[in-house]
User: What shape does this take?
Amino acid sequence: RKEVEQDPGPFNVPEGATVAFNCTYSNSASQSFFWYRQDCRKEPKLLMSVYSSGNEDGRFTAQLNRASQYISLLIRDSKLSDSATYLCVVSMNNNAGNMLTFGGGTRLMVKP
Amino acid sequence: NAGVTQTPKFRVLKTGQSMTLLCAQDMNHEYMYWYRQDPGMGLRLIHYSVGEGTTAKGEVPDGYNVSRLKKQNFLLGLESAAPSQTSVYFCASSRLLAPSYNEQFFGPGTRLTVL
Assistant: This one.
């Protein structure tokens, strides 16, 4: 079983749609959670951190459910520029080296 | 401020050849990492370093060696390349600020094909 699992997609949505991605993680000791964005043939970049209380950044909302070991990302009013692969990432703060564990990514394609 | 840079961007090797990938960062970060990314697999950690002169194994270290002689540079070596090492290699760096997580900044990647 992968440590971080995501639906690979692709999710094909029209502009303006709301889309949600989910992610599950297997290590209950994980303490930090993130969504990274990766454009085609580019490097991953941090999109947002995920906090237990949930957090919002503009059109993006992230939620964490520790009991179910589940993370979500909601994108409202999708733009063409949101087309990318979204990587779910977890970390254990107490590990030496600040290491991250990545999911395989969920691909989003926003169509006109 | 270039951030994290990687050389080369592309490389084609024959089985058994050797090569070194160079990663450089100008952010004075303590931590540096090498990942490989294969379709559907996500990024997997090969080796990492928590400071100059120190390295450690990650999830998939076999077939690779690393060195960090200078704080700003992290080298990944393939002594005898195999087709299974065909992949996209990413280098990353982050600050040291325990116990909180710090964002990892990635280089643009190196696309390696081993024939």
